[in-house]
Hints:
By secondary structure, the protein is an alpha+beta fold.
Amino acid sequence: MKVFSLSPSPSFPSPLSIHFLSLPKLPTPTSFRYTKSMAQSEGSSPGKKLIQIDISSDTVCPWCFVGKRNLDKAIASSKDQFDFEIRWRPFFLNPSAPKEGVSKAEFYKNKFGPRSEQIKARMTEIFRGLGLEYDMSGLTGNTLDSHRLIYFAGKQGLDKQHNLVEELCLGYFTQGKYIGDQEFLVESAKKVGVEGAAEFLQDPNNGLNEVNEEFRKYSAHISGVPYFVINGKQQLSGGQLPEVFLRTFQAAAV
């Protein structure tokens, strides 16, 4: 599976100086099945081992959504063995993107040229394997507010944070919603039970320091997303298959 990648630099800068580069060559078609996201535990149940997962991702990265869906499937098939704590960490593929947004289709066309149609066709195929329709309509742009909201949701519960990521990805990748639209962000938060989202997002400073600190701690050293750290010792990159996650759970639980 592929990641959305960035070229590394000797000393990784703050989020506001990362630049989005070309999408790597996409893999051969793989079929996945749709799985509802599972709630996470904030402690280990008797007889079960705890799996803690930190996920660096960006909300405009399609492979991050593919990876999430496959992770959810792995969780569903191993919930009798493990409890899970999942935390989403910020990454910025294009932090200089305009807040007002630009046409998603035009952005891809300008960025990738003739390859944009190939990319769209392949992602459409991948998403259909997940039971979803990949939608290139609407706008793309700055993701900072979405990361602030994901951080805020995490303060109200890891299950709410995980479910919020699902709602944001569904809206952006399958419904033509704009990831920088505060109305869409607040609507997604309400769907998963996050309270106070509108008030939180109104002040652009709310959560800003925390998001930047999480970026520096969890994501500044990596060059592509999604990136999974499992129990602090196993690392995976890209939209891995469910069986890869299952093997990694076993190894991390030792």
